[in-house]
Amino acid sequence: MKSRKRKVVLAVGVAALVAGFGSLAAVSFADANSASSAGFTDTFEDGDIAGWSKSGGTWSVVADGSKVLRQSSTTSNNARVFAGDSGWTGYAVQARVKPLTLGSGGFVGLLARATGSTTFYRLALLPGNLVQLQAVNSGTVTVLGSASRTMSPGTWYTLSLTVNGATISGSVDGSAVATATNTLRAAGRIGVQTSYATASFDDITVTTGGATPAPTPATTTTAPAPSTSPTGTTSPSGTPSPSPTSSPPTAGNALYVSPAGAAGAAGTQANPTTLTSAITRVTAGGTIYLRGGTYNLSQTVTIAPGNNGTASARKKLSAYPGETPVLNFSAQSEDPANRGLAVNGNFWHLYGIVVERAGDNGIFVGGSNNIFERTVTRFNRDSGLQISRIASDTPRAQWPANNLVLSAESHDNADSDGEDADGFAAKLTVGPGNVFRYAVSHHNIDDGWDLFAKPDTGPIDPVTIEDSIAYDNGTLSNGTVNAAGDRNGYKLGGSDIAVNHVVRRSIAYHNGKHGFTYNSNPGTISVSNNLSIDNAERNYSFDAGTSVFRGNTSCRGGSGTNDRIIGDADSSNQFWSGSNGSRCATRTGALAWSFAADGRLLVTFAGKPVTL
């Protein structure tokens, strides 16, 4: 399935489960890799181009660091693939594009509002270091604008093409090419194209923003209202902030960064600076806007201790509205010292940023009172987002506390030994008040969540996970499994250290070991109103402790290992001990998840609200 809506589809009705639904082949999960409210995303990590329609050329998915879409014919004068919906009107399509060969008279292009094989808007890379914004009508090209841009074969560039009413605009690596008014077509599909050129394409994303957004699940429901933080802690945020839709400010409290920015630049929209420079220059209450595109980085980007905002004036690091900045650390080797983005300051708010392919954690959190909203951490070589102390000698009073991970996604993180790369982690050494809310962790080589306590430092403080989903952890999107991985959905402890974590209103589905497990935590974990379905061993595994269980549900598609519960469990739970309870019958049909505009995680079964 390549509609690539931000949703997962799985059949969990009793009849479907008994019919053998427990196998991977019977489950279809769509990729969901964009940090923004994407209507479509394809990273090609599933190895196919199903859902794309081809016309001309030789197209295939090949390995180029990650898996990419490649057109390999040098003689085709019109090689195209299309996807999406002919009714899409206002949207931005973005793609990473690597021209490999570019013959005389040739081009490599990104397409929007395609109504046929030769009618569309196009942002084209041409020989002679030229980029053009074009309207193509039955093959006749009208140039809407152009810019000079040095381009080298074998180099990745991020192209963005935005169509909003009659306004058409394009950019390369966050730098504007042109904006024009044109009424050639009001709606249409997306595509990529080459002519007498070979090229690779990756990370193709559509972000809605016009009158007719990309399709969303047929029915959505309002998720439970955000709960307050545990007693005695300070929540860094209440209800999630809506996505920014207005133009960014241009006053002195905003700095602008692009992949082509210069360290000494002013940091204006016209003269953007670099990320590392902006981090040292932004003032409390100010915002750093990251333009869309891929930032190829080889060193950890660090927000240092002492680089702080305040409770009333946070420092913000945000995606530019309608664009997706990707911090790519693929140049790093796998090493604990090679993190991607290290947030060791306090009172920061990160929004809409993708961090990928770091040599260790994608985002490391050593500071306190920070918010990580709409972030995506993927393909990193340790846990995607991890909260832990900065250094081994950091005193307990300075362990990271009161951080909120909100409406975030983490997937396909994998280390070489398979034992440490989780989707999300708050482990080893964390202070009080850390919360994960509306978060989704899937296809990580180890666990969805890891709350492991370090034996030589004593207990960590309780962590709250709520209104979240963990699925298919232990198996990467490409099918890779590492036998050394723990492969749980929610791993809630370790080292026989008692910590009273809270996990509520969350879903564990089809993880490679247990859905929810105490993992040798003998404390009083609060486990309430959760749903666990078809995990490989137990849906709930609690062999010791004094945990409290209320309102939980466990479903299986036939035979399987009984749930193991030690603690305070009453009749409000429906655990699995050889048969499904009555609640499982209502979990029939497709389960879909999406992020609402305000960041809440919306979940439905067959278009009907999920009540946890």
Automatic annotation (TrEMBL):
Subcellular location: Secreted
GO molecular function: carbon-oxygen lyase activity, acting on polysaccharides; hydrolase activity; metal ion binding
Cofactor entry: Ca(2+)
InterPro entries (UniProt xref): AL/BT2_dom (IPR010496), ConA-like_dom_sf (IPR013320), Pectin_lyas_fold (IPR012334), Pectin_lyase_fold/virulence (IPR011050), Polysaccharide_Lyase_9 (IPR052052)
Main subcellular location: secreted
Superkingdom of the organism of origin: Bacteria
Positions of the 3-keto-alpha-glucoside-1,2-lyase/3-keto-2-hydroxy-glucal hydratase domain: 39-206
Residues annotated as signal peptide: 1-25
UniProt similarity note: Belongs to the polysaccharide lyase 9 family.
Gene3D superfamilies (alphabetical): Exo-inulinase, domain 1, Single-stranded right-handed beta-helix, Pectin lyase-like
Organism: Phytohabitans rumicis
Pfam families: 3keto-disac_hyd (PF06439)
Protein name: 3-keto-alpha-glucoside-1,2-lyase/3-keto-2-hydroxy-glucal hydratase domain-containing protein
Keywords for the protein's UniProt record, in alphabetical order: Calcium, Lyase, Metal-binding, Secreted, Signal
PANTHER family registered for this protein in UniProt: PECTATE LYASE (EUROFUNG) (PTHR40088), PECTATE LYASE PEL9 (PTHR40088:SF1)
Biased composition (Low complexity): 208-238
Disordered: annotated span: 208-256
Any one Gene Ontology cellular component term annotated for this protein: extracellular region
